[in-house]
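Hi X.,

You mentioned you wanted examples for the new student's onboarding notes, showing what a folding record looks like when two proteins sit in one file. Here is a clean example. The first protein comes first, with its sequence line followed by its structure tokens.
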Amino acid sequence: MALYVRTLTGEDQRRLEGLARSAMDGELSKRARIVLLSARRQRVHEISAAVELHPINVRKWIHRFNRLGIEGLYPRRSPGRPRLFDEDQREAIVALATSEPDALGLDFEVWSLQRLRSQLIRRGVMPEISAETIRQELLRGGLVFEGRRWVRQNGMD
């Protein structure tokens, strides 16, 4: 069964033609052309060849238009990966790494990433964190591992 966009209103037709001619956003222009070609009853594979886009993507934009109208043709920005932790937690990682373990009543003198991980979880700073994430955050915080401890790069602080 062939897939086509729903019947266009006069307003849809005018807006789509304007978007299709627009050089401001090439992707949006291409999506508007997909809808206009589909409204002229061109098949997905013909549209795909005309706009140089895979048929799966042509179908996606036809479905999005049918469901959401012209607004569905605008890009939706992905929020990306959720943040693992907040700024207070970042500061707590750095503060713990730059503290002296024995001053905190711990029975070791040097922090390892695994010991930092264990203490951050035990102290309720965060429910879970990997040693690698701790290492990355310490580097991002301007720390380097020097000798047997984490210190501010270039001797700062």
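Then the second protein repeats the pattern, sequence line and then tokens:
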Amino acid sequence: MPIESIPPGSLQALLDSGEEIQMIDVREQWELDICRIAGSLNIPLATLPAALDELNREQPVAVICHHGMRSQQAAEFLAANGFSRIMNLQGGIEAWATQVDPAMQRY
């Protein structure tokens, strides 16, 4: 299944609808200390291969990073490892902060 590039507002709408989505933030801890989307699971990109067994391959996954590049790499890795529905947050946490949560601290 192809990776879906999802705009921040569309991801927010899915979350608001109650859909069960695994949100995986592949940024480093220092980045999460600045800002994060509530409910996201921090798995830095370099540690993703070791964390695969902790994730549900059948549940939709939204991958998050700062601008969308690391999360695209993570999404491609997840797709190659049998995940069924993968969404890459378009524009990353930066776009989320500008379009969904303007009070969020940015860096």
